[in-house]
Design brief:
The protein is mainly alpha-helical and about 90 residues long. The protein is built from 3 helices and no strands. The chain has one domain (about 1-5, about 30-85).
């Protein structure tokens, strides 16, 4: 999954000479790629939290990180909705 996201991002960077509609698609594609990255990071943090909770270790730092990642994801969703409604 990580390599697919990186490949998509690199291929998106190589696209240039785009008209307005292509730029919208590029933005949506890049937001989608970032969304996939965030989903992966969120999954890793949740897994680490579960492991720590099972051991009885504190998870405050991971909870803050999870909240930050979910905030970023929410921001991307709002930007995608704005692109689609435009």
């Amino acid at each position: 999954m990580k390599y697919e996201v990186e490949f998509t991002y690199i291929s998106l960077l190589r696209r240039h000479d785009l008209d307005i509609s292509d730029r919208s698609n590029l933005s949506a594609d890049s937001y989608g790629a970032r969304m996939a990255e965030l989903d992966l990071e969120i999954g890793k943090v949740q897994h680490e939290m579960n492991e720590r909770q099972a051991k009885g270790s504190p998870t405050v730092d991971l909870e803050k990180r999870l909240e930050e990642l979910e905030g970023q994801k929410h921001g991307l969703v709002e930007r995608l909705e704005a692109l689609w409604s435009a």
